[in-house]
Every structure is written in structure tokens, then in C-alpha cells.
Design a protein that fits this description.
Elements lengths: L7 E5 L3 H11 L6 H11 L4 H6 L7 E5 L2 H13 L6 E5 L8 H11 L4 E6 L6 H8 L5 E5 L4 H56 L1 H8 L4 E6 L4 E4 L1 H6 L12 H4 L4 H15 L6 E8 L5 E12 L5 E10 L1 H15 L9 H17 L5 E9 L1 H8 L1 H21 L11 E5 L2 E7 L4 H16 L2 E3 L2 E3 L2 E8 L7 H17 L5 E3 L2 H22 L3 E10 L4 E12 L3 E3 L5 H7 L2 H22 L8 E5 L1 H4 L4 H12 L6 E6 H6 L1 H14 L2 E7 L6 H4 L6 E4 L1 H4 L6 H16 L3 E4 L5 H9 L4 E2 L8 E2 H9 L9
Parallel strand pairs: 1-2, 1-3, 3-4, 4-5, 16-17, 19-21, 21-22, 22-23, 23-24, 24-25, 25-26
Antiparallel strand pairs: 6-7, 6-10, 8-9, 9-10, 11-13, 11-16, 12-13, 14-15, 18-19, 18-26, 18-27, 19-20
């Protein structure tokens, strides 16, 4: 905005007549005439001669707003265009919008320099309240309605003049600030030059500062022209020499430097003396008088003549042996296991990197990685304590190291070849082997070495090891890939029964990747409701419906409907079997609840759900079952839990406790796949079970194999003697059905009766059959 007086005035009032009044007062034929007269009387401009010489006063430029919100937008626009208002007349009461005080606050937010005159006949606020709200302020006046023309003119003249003077003062202040800023910049530049000059002086005095710093260490001063060296008393003391034992020859220095470091020291000196380095600095081993070597930090600078030739050099000797020992210890710790002192994963990765680099240079060089895991270490650790467990790990490491050093296929038996990479996992690196047979021979030696009992604090402990082996074939780019493949082979070894060795082959990796992919897709399947239940009926021999067994299926988005065999093993291995089993139980109970509501007369209708061995070992299984039954409002007797014989016999005492809790809840317990495990009759009669399901492996051949028929007949007789119901699984043909009926089998299940069917088809199946009670 220029320096001309600002005559822009804003009138804010909800009464249009007020706007008209202001225009009559401030908008006469001779715009500004009233104001000129008023200014003359106020500011001394009534001299006719002076008036003639003065330029005509600018007329007022009025703007109007009927509400506070409208005024706020007008002021915002004026600020944006840099055409600010000098003065605003504001009414106090403007319903239904903002009142006068709210309007003032908002206008001052938009333009803090705006002067305000409150125009009011009656206000909801006292002057004390206004003062309390805005504080002491010279931009706020009050004009009582009805107002006098002279008062309005006087206010306009005075306040616009005040605004003009304030703006001039602001411009002056801005100019002064710019001047101060410019001077400050000049001072900063001057100060920067001083800092640079000081830095240059410090650099020129570096040799003196270095000599002063080295005063606590050994000092040396070498006259390069005469070849004489001055060694300080401290220099000699550091090396354990008396004052008169050292001459002034450079040979006194060189002869004590370690042979492996001497050439490097001389090269560092040459480079500095010839100007290739700014300072002489290096760390070297120097022999003490007692024969041991100290680590010495040597520093120095050369003095040069006018031609830049070094004519003298001076510096210091510092004993840094303690620091180097600490660094060596830190380096050792960073690459070794703290418990066993063996190489750790970091050093193993480094060693594998060297092996891969060598195999790329030499196609005949081969190496192998043996990934080992102690079997049942957790049992030992938990039962005998962590102290014994740690001692076992140390002893295992010692045996593995001794075994590695005895193996003649190792190219460098003196290097750490055995690493502990975490927990009870060890890795043995075999370099320079001839082929797979060598690796397997070493694995057999390891098995033999670890098969001998360990004597640990009075406890004789036996442990075994599972080993996965991978042999380099030139295709590895990363050490982690080698360890991954060896770990994959270890996984196969543990799955094969532990205490054995497996060699890696590419198909293992493919299977591992497929397992990982299926596990990932399974987690998505659970989240995205891709799992569904099919139901297979269980019937009486004469065709009445007793129950339906819930069987899980996976509606894969790309592979279609998957049977349990394609994904259940993955669920069990990943540990997801427990939450998935709980989902199956809840979904089956909800479906049964819907069927009971649809078929109120079929009150004996029940559903069977398989319980995995992991679920059976879960302490909260009985509570989960009770919660689901309560949630679905089902009688407990309608739910049959099917437990495999092998799972029930795995930990009989714990199984007895779990089944007792389930029995207390009221659910029915069926033993599935009976005849395939190793049930003890002494335990079988103690289990709170209701039925036995004869494994399909006995039903299939019973029509042509008298032995199978005899086994089925014996199971049925055994079950009935224990008051248990019997269900024959795998009834695939009419001959099967007739055979089991003739042996007085209670219930049948199989494809001849019905395949597993979706819930909607199961609904139709229920509608066509009479339901009987299935109980033992």
C-alpha cells in the first residue's frame, strides 16, 4: 500500500438504513468536504492560504456488510488484495449471526491493524465487560446511537489520520529492521573470516600442538639430513630400556618393530616425507625389552624447507596395548558364542562367504554344511535345570570340535569349523570334501560322538542329534541360502524320526516353499471365510439317521474345493490346528442349532467333530467346548467329540484328565480309527468314552479276508462288553454293509451310505430320514 491516507471504511450493521445514513454523512456532493472542515479545526488547517496550497482531501470509500460473517470475508479479501480498511463501524446486535464482540474478534484475526468503532443504542455488554474481553486497546471506540454527523466526521478524520501515522511508523520500523539485518549480515561475514583466520593459525601451529600432546608419551625428533634421532626418556621407558641403552640411530627403532609391520611403517614414513600424506600416523607392534610385543601408536609431522623437502620430523609414541587387547576381545566376542566360545552365526556367515568365493575361483573345490539340532534338549533343560542344559551345550560343542579336528577331509582343521547359531542348533562346516559320501561319513562320526552319555553334575544324560546336510554345487550366491537348505534338510530329518541324517535336494526346497505358501494362504483362508464344512451321515443298519460327522473343506479361490489331506498336515505343523479346530466345533454347533430349529421333532439329531492331538493336549479344551455349547444353546449330549486312538494313547494319564473334564461337561466321546493304534485294555476301560469307530482299513478287506473279519468281530464284541456303541467306517459297498450288519454292528458310515455333503444337501438328507439316538 502507498503512503496516501487510507479512506477505506467498512460499515457492519443489519439495518440497511444505518448504511444509508453513513453514505449521506460521508458521501456528500463534495466528497470529503465535511472531513476537510473537521481536519482544519482539529489539525490546524483552517488558514485559507494554507488550504489553497494543500491538495484536495481524498473522499471516503465505503464498504457494507449486513452480518459479521459477511464482514469477515470482506476483510479477508481486503488483506489479500493489500487494500486494507482503516476503520470499521460495527453494530452490537445483528441477529441471527454473530454479535458485535464476536465480529470484532474475527475481524481482528483477519486484520490486526483495523480500528473499530462500536455503534450501539443498547448493548448486551457493559464497557467493563468489553474491556475485560479485549483488554486495554487504542483501536476500539464506542459511538452511541443515534449519532451526530459531526461525531462521525470527527471519528473518521481522527482515526484515518491515526491509521496513516501508524502505517508510516510501521514502514519506518521495517526500514530500520532491514538496516539492522544488513549490518548483522556484515558482522557475521566478518566473524566468519575471523574464524577462518583462526583455523589457519591453528593449522600452522599443528606441529607444536602435537608435540605438546605427546609430552606424556615417548617423543622422537629425527634430523633427516644427518640421520640422527633423538629418543626421549619416556620413549625408552615404554620399551623397558635404560637411558644409555639406546643410541641415536634409526636402527634402534626399526630393529624393534615386528617383522610383519616394518615394511608398512617405512612406507608410511616415505609417503609423509615425500608429501603424499599430511601427517604420519600408524599402529605397529614394537618389541619390549622383556621380549613381548606392545602395540604402539606412532604420530608425527615433517618440517620442510623452502622447496618443500622434508628436513626434519618429530612426533610421539603411545602405548595402546590395552586398547588393542580390548578391541581384539570385542572382535572375538562379536564372532563367538558367549556360552561355548565357539564361532557364532556372524563368523559362520563370513567363513561361508570365503568358501563360496573360493568355489567360484576353483570349480573343483567343494564344501558342505551340516545343520544339527539336539533331540529332546528342551526336556533335559526343563527337567534338570538351565545350568545342566548350558553345560550340555558346552560339552556337545567340545565333542563336535574334537570330532571336526579328527576329520581328514577338512582343508583347514585349525580354523573354527563348528558354530553354535542359537539355542541347541550347531553347524559344522566341511571344507575341501570330495563328495556327498564324505559329508555322510562325517555325519555318522558325529552321531557316534554324541551317542555316548554325558556326565553332567552327577546326572548321566543321553542325547541324540538330527542332521541336515547340503553340499555346495556352485549355484549358491548367498550364505543364508546354504543355511536355509541345510535347515530344510534338518526339518526332514526330524520329521523322519529324529536321530538321523538327511541330504538336501532341490525338491525339499520346493516342498518347503509350497508349505510356506499353503500356510500363508491358510491364514488368509481363515480370515476370508474360505473354510467350509461338509457333513457325512452315520446311520443304523436299517437306514435310520443317527448323527452327522462334520468334515472340513477348503474352498480355495484358485484351486477349487480342497480335501483335508491337502492342507490338514500343514495346519497341524504350523500350530493353527487349535484355532481351526475351535472354528470347526463352533461352526458345526451353529449348524446343528439351525437344523434343530428347522426340524423340532428330530430332538436326537447330533453332530460329530474331530479333535486333534494338539487340541486334546490343550488345557482349556473343556472350557472351550462348554462356552460353545452355551453360546449355541445346545444340549451337551448332541455333540460327539471324535478322538483318534493314537492321540488318546499318546499321554494316557493326561488324556484321562481331559476326557474326564469333557465327560463332566456332558459331551459324547468316540474313539476314532480304532484298531490302528496300541490301546491297552487296562486303560481302555478307564476312558470315559461312548463309542468305538472301527478303522476303514479293517472294513474294506473283511469280505475276502477272514482275519480282517475276525478282527472286526472281536472289536464289536469288546465294545459291547464295555457297553460301548460301535461304528464301522469305510462302508463302500452293499457287501460291506451286509457283513457288518451280520456282526451286530450298531452304526455304519461310508460312501455307500453317503459321501460328505454340503450343509444344504445335508438338510435335505435329514428331512428324508428318521433320526434315532446315537449313544453308547
Amino acid at each position: 500500500m502507498n503512503s496516501a491516507r487510507n479512506r477505506r471504511i467498512l460499515v457492519v450493521d443489519d439495518n440497511q438504513s444505518i448504511h444509508d445514513d453513513f453514505r449521506k454523512i460521508l458521501g456528500t456532493r463534495d466528497p470529503g468536504e465535511s472531513l476537510r472542515n473537521m481536519e482544519g479545526s482539529i489539525f490546524g488547517k483552517d488558514d485559507p492560504a494554507t488550504a489553497k496550497r494543500a491538495p484536495a482531501t481524498e473522499p471516503c470509500e465505503l464498504a457494507s456488510a449486513l452480518q459479521g460473517e459477511e464482514a469477515y470475508q470482506v476483510v479477508l479479501q481486503s488483506v489479500a488484495e493489500d487494500r486494507r480498511f482503516a476503520l470499521a463501524f460495527i453494530d452490537m446486535r445483528m441477529p441471527p449471526g454473530w454479535d458485535g464482540l464476536k465480529t470484532i474478534e474475527k475481524l481482528w484475526e483477519a486484520d490486526s491493524e483495523l480500528q473499530v468503532v462500536i455503534c450501539t443504542a443498547y448493548s448486551d455488554y457493559s464497557w467493563q465487560e468489553i474491556h475485560q474481553r479485549f483488554g486495554a486497546c487504542d483501536r476500539l471506540l464506542i459511538l452511541k446511537k443515534p449519532f451526530d454527523t459531526l461525531e462521525v466526521c470527527q471519528l473518521v478524520s481522527s482515526l484515518t489520520e491515526k491509521w496513516h501515522l501508524g502505517r508510516q511508523a510501521h514502514l519506518k520500523l521495517t526500514q530500520m529492521r532491514e538496516m539492522v539485518h544488513e549490518q548483522t549480515r556484515e558482522l557475521e561475514n566478518t566473524n566468519q573470516k575471523l574464524v577462518e583466520e583462526i583455523e589457519q593459525r591453528k593449522n600452522s601451529e599443528e606441529r607444536y600442538r602435537l608435540a605438546e600432546t605427546g609430552a606424556n608419551d615417548g617423543l622422537w625428533d629425527w634430523d633427516l639430513l644427518s640421520g640422527q634421532v633423538y629418543y626421549s626418556s619416556r620413549w625408552k621407558t615404554i620399551l623397558g630400556c635404560a637411558e644409555d641403552e639406546i643410541s641415536d640411530s634409526p636402527g634402534e627403532w626399526y630393529s624393534r618393530v615386528h617383522a610383519d609391520d616394518l615394511d608398512r611403517l617405512k612406507e608410511d614414513q616415505r609417503r609423509h616425507f615425500e608429501g603424499e600424506s599430511e601427517q604420519l600416523r600408524g599402529e605397529y607392534r614394537v618389541r619390549h625389552a622383556d621380549g613381548r610385543y606392545l602395540w604402539i601408536l606412532c604420530r608425527g609431522v615433517a618440517v620442510r624447507d623452502a622447496d618443500g623437502r622434508a628436513i626434519r620430523a618429530a612426533g610421539s609414541f603411545s602405548d595402546i596395548t590395552d586398547r588393542k587387547v580390548a578391541e581384539d576381545q570385542m572382535r572375538f566376542d562379536s564372532q563367538h558364542d558367549s556360552l561355548t566360545g565357539m564361532a557364532n552365526r556372524a563368523q559362520l556367515i563370513e567363513r561361508l562367504g570365503h568358501c563360496m568365493a573360493r568355489s567360484r575361483r576353483d570349480a573343483t573345490f567343494r564344501f558342505a554344511v551340516m545343520f544339527m539340532d539336539l533331540d529332546h534338549f528342551k526336556v533335559i533343560n526343563d527337567s534338570l535345570g538351565h545350568g545342566v542344559g548350558d553345560r550340555l551345550l558346552v560339552e556337545v560343542g567340545m565333542r563336535l570340535t574334537a570330532c571336526a579336528r579328527e576329520i581328514d577331509t577338512l582343508a583347514r582343521p585349525g580354523i573354527d569349523q563348528v558354530a553354535r547359531i542359537g539355542g541347541d542348533e550347531f553347524v559344522l562346516l566341511l571344507e575341501g570334501i570330495g563328495g556327498d559320501a564324505d559329508a555322510l561319513r562325517v555325519a555318522n562320526r558325529v552321531h557316534e560322538a554324541l551317542a555316548k552319555p554325558f556326565d553332567l553334575e552327577g546326572h548321566e544324560v543321553c542325547t541324540f542329534v538330527s542332521i541336515g546336510v547340503t553340499v555346495s554345487r556352485g549355484s549358491y550366491e548367498r550364505a543364508d541360502d546354504i543355511l536355509r537348505d541345510a535347515d530344510t534338510a534338518l526339518y526332514q530329518a526330524k520329521g523322519a524320526g529324529k536321530a538321523c541324517t538327511r541330504m538336501f535336494d532341490p525338491e525339499m526346497h520346493e516342498r518347503a516353499m509350497m508349505r510356506l505358501r499353503i500356510e500363508t494362504e491358510l491364514r488368509q483362508a481363515i480370515d476370508q471365510d474360505q473354510l467350509v464344512l461338509h457333513y457325512q451321515p452315520i446311520m443304523t443298519g436299517d437306514g435310520r439317521l443317527a448323527s452327522l460327522e462334520a468334515l472340513i473343506r477348503w474352498q480355495h479361490p484358485h484351486r477349487g474345493l480342497l480335501q483335508p489331506g491337502a492342507f490338514i498336515p500343514m495346519i497341524e505343523e504350523s500350530g493353527m490346528i487349535v484355532p481351526v479346530g475351535k472354528w470347526v466345533m463352533r461352526a458345526a454347533c451353529r449348524q446343528l442349532q439351525a437344523w434343530r430349529a428347522q426340524f423340532p421333532g428330530q430332538r436326537y439329531l447330533s453332530v460329530g467333530v474331530n479333535v486333534s492331538s494338539r487340541q486334546l493336549a490343550t488345557p482349556g479344551l473343556a472350557d472351550d467346548v462348554a462356552d460353545i455349547l452355551s453360546e449355541t444353546a445346545l444340549p451337551a449330549s448332541c455333540l460327539h467329540l471324535e478322538v483318534t486312538e493314537s492321540a488318546a494313547m499318546r499321554n494316557v494319564e493326561e488324556t484321562l484328565k481331559t476326557l474326564a473334564r469333557l465327560n463332566a461337561v456332558g459331551t459324547q466321546i468316540d474313539v476314532d480309527d480304532f484298531g490302528t493304534g496300541y490301546s491297552s485294555l487296562s486303560y481302555l476301560h478307564r476312558l470315559p468314552i461312548n463309542a468305538l469307530k472301527i478303522d476303514r482299513g479293517f472294513i474294506g478287506p473283511m469280505c475276502r479276508d477272514t482275519m480282517s473279519r475276525s478282527i472286526v468281530q472281536a472289536i464289536i464284541a469288546l465294545a459291547h462288553s464295555l457297553n460301548l456303541a460301535v461304528i464301522a467306517e469305510g462302508v463302500e459297498t452293499e457287501s460291506h454293509l451286509e457283513a457288518v450288519r451280520s456282526l451286530d454292528c450298531d452304526f455304519v458310515q461310508g460312501f455307500y451310505i453317503s459321501r460328505p455333503i454340503p450343509a444344504d444337501e445335508a438338510t435335505s438328507f435329514i428331512a428324508k430320514h428318521t433320526v434315532v439316538r446315537k449313544a453308547g
